[in-house]
Amino acid sequence: MKITSIKCLVLDKQFPFVFVETDEGITGIGECFRRQPSITKIVIDDLLAPSIIGKDPTNTDARFSDMTKAGNALEIGGAMWIGIAGLDIALWDIKGKSLNKPIYELLGGKIRDKMPIYASSMKRDLTPLDEAKRAVKFVEQGFKGYKMHSAVPGKIDDPSDQTIDTVTEVRKAVGDKIDILVDVNGAYSVHHAIEIGKKLQDLGVFHFEEPRPHYDLEGLSKVADALDIPIASGENIYTEFEYKALVDKGRVDIIQPDIVKTPGFTTFKKISELSSLTGIPITCHNTQPIISTVAHAHFVCSNKNTPYLQEYNIENISIRDEHPILTEPLNIDNGMLSLGDKPGLGVDLDMNMINKLI
User: Fold this and answer.
1) What is the pLDDT of residue 150?
2) Lowest mean pLDDT: which of 20-34, 112-126, 251-265?
3) Residue 354 in this model has a pLDDT that exceeds 80
4) pLDDT tens for residues 280-295?
5) What is the CATH number of the domain that holds 19?
6) Which of 3, 58, 146, 357 is most buried, most CB within 10 Å of its CB?
7) Residues 96 and 109 in one domain
8) Contacts for 265-270 with beta carbons within 8 Å, 24 or more apart?
9) 143 and 16, same structural domain?
């Protein structure tokens, strides 16, 4: 089998999807991280696609190496890894379809049929009471976890931060049996992160995410060592080498790869090995509820190093909520996500809708 063509289509001006076609009529689909989609498209069209067209898509390790070299990804990083991520997902989709197996079978086999997902609120303009009311609505839908994005991104220790007030109201509203997760996107100094973290501990928060930016490994280690609450980080890094540094030097308690950034299943397998060796669990970061969510689900349902499993974006997403591109919606019921047994990713896209959104 050989790759005959690759297309990167930006849907609704913000969501980059890739389509990898083969000479045997199998098409693989993938998704890239959504920011700067025009740059992602250029990277794929001009650098990555030419490096793998004409080659066997099922040899995913070799194709990953081809793309890494063509994009100088280890040197340049960022946009290169994001482009590789989408293509790697598509190649694994082809591999699964060619073998008539779901991707989770290629990753070792399913060890759980249903995966709890937590409701992830991206709102930053809600009052503490409004956030609490919103959390209750999702608890009533069966979600057992709720993540809030508080603090003021881009600023440090901003006085308008309402994190503790908001978590207090959410906890009062949902009770003690619901997990609360807090992500502050690196918006605290070390001393303030420790101060806030102690209060979050008292409120029974499940994890404290990015109290310091991902690159401040020394700061993260100071916060992690000072607190009992698990410190989570990793959504803004790409390679297994960076994750090793995050574990060894940042001393975080949970790592959070995102398959549309941390490039694809090929890298996720390496991070899983790191998780096994260090005993540091994985909680997948996931803000894109289409192919990204499906790809994470294949990894999670076949991997024992994912105790909390998966994030699910509850905000309005045009290609899911207004112009759905999946022929069938994901199977989410009572806060649980299930996968079927179709080969590859196991989902189909509505190409009529895709063409309307280009």
Assistant:
1) 84
2) 112-126
3) yes
4) 999 999 999 999 999 9
5) 3.30.390.10
6) 146
7) no
8) 265/60, 265/88, 265/89, 265/92, 265/103, 265/107, 265/295, 265/298, 265/299, 266/60, 266/61, 266/64, 266/88, 266/92, 267/64, 267/85, 267/88, 267/238, 267/239, 267/240, 268/299, 269/107, 270/240
9) no
According to DSSP, the β-strands at 254-255 and 179-183 are unpaired
Task: Tell me the pLDDT tens digit for each residue of 164-205.
Answer: 999 999 999 999 989 999 999 999 999 999 999 999 999 999
Residue 257 per-residue DSSP state? -
How many other CB atoms sit within 10 Å of the CB of residue 234?
Answer: 28
Beta bridge partners of 232: 209, 254
The total of other beta-carbon atoms located within 10 Å of residue 120's CB is 24
Pairing status of strand 254-255 against strand 15-22: unpaired
Q: pLDDT value at position 153?
A: 81
Determine the average pLDDT of the residues in 142-156.
91
Clarify whether residues 31 and 139 are in a common domain: no
Mean pLDDT for all residues in the chain? 96
Output the DSSP codes for 66-122: HHHHHTTHHHH-THHHHHHHHHHHHHHHHHHHHHT-BHHHHTT--S-SEEEEEEEE-
Q: Is the pLDDT of residue 309 over 90?
A: no
Domain that holds residue 93: 3-100
Rounded Cα–Cα distance for residues 358 and 345 (Å)? 22
209 alpha-carbon distance from chain centroid: 14
The three state secondary structure string of 48-75 is: HHHHHCCCCCCCHHHHHHHHHHHCCHHH
- Same domain assignment for residues 211 and 309: yes
Please report whether residue 354 resides in a domain.
no
Separation CA 248–CA 251 (nearest Å):
6
Structure tokens at 213: 């930016």
- Please check whether residues 173 and 291 belong to one and the same domain: yes
